């Protein structure tokens, strides 16, 4: 290495650092940038450098590598943009140096002051590979690719390498052909750098060689912070699978009080337990709700065995499968009863209407929560019935040209809902069960619209036999979807009552900010064992995770889940893709991107042409409101998919789930 380290690029500096740290780096000499122009222009000088370098290295074969100042930086890697020439004998060095420098001179537009060279011993590899200590796509898994070829074939995309992805603390790592001890080398390099690294390496005669280390430029510091947290937080001696599903999509970050209410909903003898009991279904509270950071997850294994104790999802694909004899009889009975549920929708409607009309009596926090839990029975029952009806209709429409969202978005064409009309409550705040939701309440009601002509043509041309099969199931879905929305009004009204009682309790206890009481629990408030300082401490811990956005699922072993786009609300929209932060207040022609389909997105309905989301489904409350308001929605999309980025003009089709970039 030259005495002046400021004259060489980061690639050379990294090789020196790891060589001195005891890593097996092939011998090399770095030629400083102040020599580059002279070497390019003066062949005699270049040959002198070659002679001195070859004398010092004494290698059988050589490689000439770039080490530009702009390469391997934190912001940009410039991977593959500069020339490297390998597998050279001594006589080939002169031309190779000239070619590498000429290429760099052209790329840098004559600025060779920012370009140094590396002359290194060339290792003819038995195995060449690349390791990303974390996935460049943002996942916390390590990704290793390797093949029985030269390194240039791997990084240049000229071969199809073997690839393995796995988590750092994964128990069983499916790595073949190479010694798993190299994983520890990659982990050590990340720890040295304090950031995820892109590592090029090779193996020759069972000896590991480190060839290059550079930061992964597609990961930011916040994402890495999340990765380290998950590595430390997740169990290390047991299998697990946590996912953001169901109620997690409408309440992604519940505060302490909201979470304790959710736990009451799913507790034994709670509303969920009571509804299942009504239909003869055995349910056990397994404590499957889980907070990671401040985000809500389902423990999928515990959720599964709460109803189907003979099943497990802790397998290779994390899919529910029969796995144990214990609980077999309960499982079989529950599956049968779940698939034969039926009820009187008129009876449910009248009960729901009566509960909405009933006036609430102010009798304290405990009473408000008791009323909420009692009323939530019908909320959950409607959601349960709707879920099965939706699955049935979706399966019947699998081979049809139009899907579920098209039918439901044009529901009033098929089903008359006039006999089920209910006047929405007023003077409410919020749109879901999170106490901290202060958005304006939005109630969706059946709307008359210009029906999709393709849908009308499809229905008119459908065989009478198919119509007779589809029509009753469609009616059931359309009615239940509306009743599901009405049941949401009931839940929001009851949550407003709880909120009012909590705020009164906080003021009674001299809280400076009454809303701080949301960071206590039901039990603490009822016992009177709470104070504002402990609530503030809970709030500060909660807020400390607000800048994170954890993955949709977290598991003990890596699995490559293929995401598919899902048509959620029918209709076609064109516009500029933006997120909430970049959505203009007074302009039209924008399509909103959001991580999830949370109900508070309704406040943007009159400002956007459509919505794309990373997660959320046709059963979400936002989906219901979007269909009733005629807002096209597609889920399963992430910025960057299909080359679509924020700021692009796009067309989205909520009937087919198709997203195209407009050029």
Give an account of the 3D structure:
This protein is α+β, with helices and mostly antiparallel strands and 663 residues long. It has five domains: 1-122, Dna Ligase, domain 1; 125-233, D-amino Acid Aminotransferase, Chain A, domain 1 (2-Layer Sandwich), CATH 3.30.470.20; 237-253 and 286-330 and 548-556, no CATH class; 255-279 and 341-543, no CATH class; 563-661, Phosphohistidine domain (Glucose Oxidase, domain 1, 3-Layer(bba) Sandwich), CATH 3.50.30.10. It has a seven-stranded mixed sheet. Strand 11 and strand 12 form a beta hairpin. Helix 14 (365-396) packs antiparallel against helix 18 (464-508). It is elongated. The model has no long low-confidence stretch (mean pLDDT 90).
Quick tags:
alpha+beta, Dna Ligase, domain 1, D-amino Acid Aminotransferase, Chain A, domain 1, 17% strand
Approximate helicity band? 25-40%
Uncertain residue ranges:
none
The rough form would be described as elongated
Radius of gyration: 31 Å
The averaged pLDDT comes out at: 90
Strand content: 15-25%
Characterize the main sheet: 7 strands, mixed
Strand order of the largest sheet: 16-20-19-18-17-21-22
Q: What structural category characterises the helix and strand content?
A: alpha+beta
Query: How many individual β-strands?
Result: 22
Which assembly state applies to the chains in this document? single chain
| Cα end-to-end separation | 50 Å
Tally of helical segments: 21
**Whole-number tally of structural domains:** 5
């Amino acid at each position: 290495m030259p005495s002046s380290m400021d004259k060489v690029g980061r690639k050379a500096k990294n090789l020196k650092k790891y060589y001195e740290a005891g890593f097996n780096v092939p011998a090399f000499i770095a030629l400083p940038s102040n020599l580059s122009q002279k070497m390019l222009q003066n062949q005699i000088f270049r040959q002198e450098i070659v002679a001195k370098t070859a004398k010092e290295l004494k290698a059988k074969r050589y490689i000439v590598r770039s080490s530009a100042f702009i390469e391997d930086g934190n912001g940009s890697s410039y991977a593959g943009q500069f020339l490297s020439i390998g597998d050279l004998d001594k006589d080939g060095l002169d031309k190779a140096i000239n070619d590498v420098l000429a290429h760099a001179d052209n790329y840098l537009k004559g600025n060779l002051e920012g370009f140094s060279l590396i002359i290194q011993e060339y290792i003819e590899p038995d195995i060449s590979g690349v390791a990303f200590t974390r996935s460049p796509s943002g996942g916390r898994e390590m990704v290793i690719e390797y093949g029985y070829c030269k390194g240039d074939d791997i990084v240049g995309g000229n071969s199809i390498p073997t690839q393995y992805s796995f988590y750092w603390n994964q128990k069983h790592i499916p790595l073949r052909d190479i010694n798993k001890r190299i994983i520890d080398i990659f982990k050590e390099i990340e720890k040295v750098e304090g950031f995820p690294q892109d590592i090029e390496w090779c193996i020759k005669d069972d000896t590991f060689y480190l060839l290059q280390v550079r930061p992964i430029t597609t990961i930011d510091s916040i994402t890495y912070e999340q990765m380290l947290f998950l590595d430390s937080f997740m169990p290390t001696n047991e299998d697990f699978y946590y996912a953001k599903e169901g109620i997690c999509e409408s309440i992604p970050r519940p505060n302490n009080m909201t979470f304790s209410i959710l736990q009451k909903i799913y507790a034994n003898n709670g509303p969920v337990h009571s509804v299942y009991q009504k239909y003869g279904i055995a349910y056990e509270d397994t404590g499957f709700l889980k907070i990671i950071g401040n985000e809500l997850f389902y423990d999928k294994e515990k959720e599964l065995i709460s109803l189907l104790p003979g099943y497990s999802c802790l397998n290779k694909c994390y899919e529910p499968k029969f796995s144990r004899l214990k609980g077999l009889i309960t499982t079989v009975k529950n599956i049968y009863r779940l698939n034969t549920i039926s009820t009187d929708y008129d009876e449910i409607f009248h009960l729901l209407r009566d509960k909405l009309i009933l006036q609430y009596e102010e009798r304290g926090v405990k009473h408000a929560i008791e009323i909420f839990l009692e009323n939530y029975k019908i909320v959950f029952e409607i959601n349960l019935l709707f879920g099965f009806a939706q699955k049935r209709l979706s399966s019947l429409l699998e081979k049809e040209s139009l899907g579920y969202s098209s039918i439901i978005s044009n529901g009033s064409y098929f089903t008359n809902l006039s006999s089920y009309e209910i006047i929405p409550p007023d003077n409410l705040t919020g749109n879901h069960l999170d106490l901290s939701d202060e958005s304006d309440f939005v109630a969706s009601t059946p709307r008359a619209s210009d029906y999709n002509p393709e849908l009308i043509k499809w229905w008119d041309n459908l065989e009478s036999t198919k119509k007779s099969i589809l029509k009753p199931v469609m009616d059931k879905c359309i009615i239940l979807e509306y009743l599901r929305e009405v049941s949401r009004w009931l839940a929001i009204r009851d949550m407003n009552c709880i909120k009012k009682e909590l705020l009164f309790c906080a003021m009674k206890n001299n809280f400076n900010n009454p809303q701080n009481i949301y960071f206590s629990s039901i039990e603490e408030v009822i016992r009177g064992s709470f104070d504002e300082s402990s609530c503030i401490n809970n709030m500060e811990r909660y807020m400390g995770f607000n800048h994170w956005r954890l993955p949709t699922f977290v598991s003990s072993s890596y699995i490559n889940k293929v995401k598919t786009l899902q048509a959620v609300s029918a209709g076609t929209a064109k516009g500029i893709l933006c997120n909430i932060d970049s959505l203009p207040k007074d302009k039209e022609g924008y399509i909103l991107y959001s991580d999830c389909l949370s109900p508070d997105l309704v406040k943007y309905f009159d400002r956007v042409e459509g919505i794309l989301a990373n997660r959320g489904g046709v059963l979400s409350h936002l989906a219901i409101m979007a269909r009733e308001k005629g807002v096209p929605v597609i889920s399963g999309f992430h910025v960057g998919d299909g080359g679509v980025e924020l700021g692009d003009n796009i067309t989205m089709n909520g009937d087919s789930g198709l997203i195209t970039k407009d050029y």
